[in-house]
Amino acid sequence: MRETNTFNQAIVIWLGVALLLLQSLGHAETETPERIEWKKAPIRLELTVGQEQRIEFPTSVKVGVPAPVQALLRTQSVNGTVYLLAHAPFGSNRLMVRELDSGRIYLFDVTAAKEGGASHPIQIYVTGNDGTTKDSATASNEVGLDRPDYIQLTCFAAQQLYAPSRLLIDRPGIVRVPVRRDPVDLLHGGGVEATPLVAWHSNGIYVTAVKITNRTNQAQTLDPRNLRGAWLTASFQHHRLLPKGDAADTTAVYLISARPFEVSR
User: Fold this and answer.
1) Which of 98-102, 131-135, 153-157, 162-166 is least confident?
2) Chain centre distance of CA 195
3) H or E element in which residue 264 lies
4) What is the average per-residue pLDDT within 128-137?
5) Which end of the chain, C or N, has fewer beta carbons within 10 A?
6) 82: Cβ–Cβ under 8 A, 6 or more apart, which residues?
7) Which of 145, 131, 127 is nearest to 39 (CA)?
8) What is the CB neighbour count within 10 angstroms for residue 13?
């Protein structure tokens, strides 16, 4: 009788171990990404309601969700990985996913059902003309190779100030930094008022957007040689200000510096 009990206990233990192994193998299989090559044709994707779907891209992306499903589909984009979660079933809707650095657009025809949707994470990769493959792993090794120069930083700052919000594009590697918004004595002559608005940092250099306002009754011509401070480059949005009170009495200057704005001026 004692041997029978021992045998039964061993069977129970082995069954438990086998069940744990099967669960581990099932979890590992579920977590193995399904690799899909982007060939410019919309990718069909069926979601399961209440089950989050993970999609990995070669680089950071932004997701555009059609209005009819905005309340039914939660989307999050984090460092090149998109997380989709359907709250309710819906028919086919097209999602546009745009790479922030290159502008490449991926298309997905997405549906949601209560059961039967995709169970694997998805990894999107792109094959270049030379046959090389670019996915999230290879893209991570390329970080830092395409760093913005002075002109690109200046254009980025100008877009942030003047472009419509729907056209604004975040750029990896350009990080917003704090700047004091108190008026400063930036130009010789005292005819204009300068107020820092916003600043960014990238690859060891800084760009600061500063509002310039004419405080006199005379038109002012802006000359970079009249700027106080240590600047690598200075670009005015407009080079002429009309007298104070006119709609054109204000513009912006974009200052590139090797150190933060407060130190450089």
Assistant:
1) 131-135
2) 28
3) helix 261-264
4) 60
5) N
6) 54, 55, 56, 57, 61, 63, 75, 76, 97
7) 127
8) 10
> What token pair was written down for 183?
């008026």
The CA-CA-CA angle for residues 43, 45, 51, to 5°, reads: 150
Q: How far apart are CA 163 and CA 209, in angstroms?
A: 14
Contacts of 239 (CB under 8 A, 6+ apart): 221, 222
Is 195 within 8 Å of 210 (Cβ atoms)? yes
Domain segments of the chain: what residues?
A: 32-140, 150-264
Highest mean pLDDT among 20-29, 100-109, 203-212 belongs to 203-212
Provide the 8-state DSSP code for 258: S
CB under 8 Å to 50, separation ≥6 — which residues? Answer: 85, 86, 87
**The domain 32-140 belongs to what CATH superfamily?**
Immunoglobulins (2.60.40.10)
How far apart are the C-alpha atoms of 259 and 57, rounded to whole Å?
34
Calculate the average pLDDT of the chain: 81
Residue located via tokens 């309340």: 71
Tallying the residues shown for the chain, one arrives at: 265
pTM of the shown model: 0.47
CA–CA separation, 56 vs 34, rounded Å? 10
Cα-Cα end-to-end distance for the chain? 91
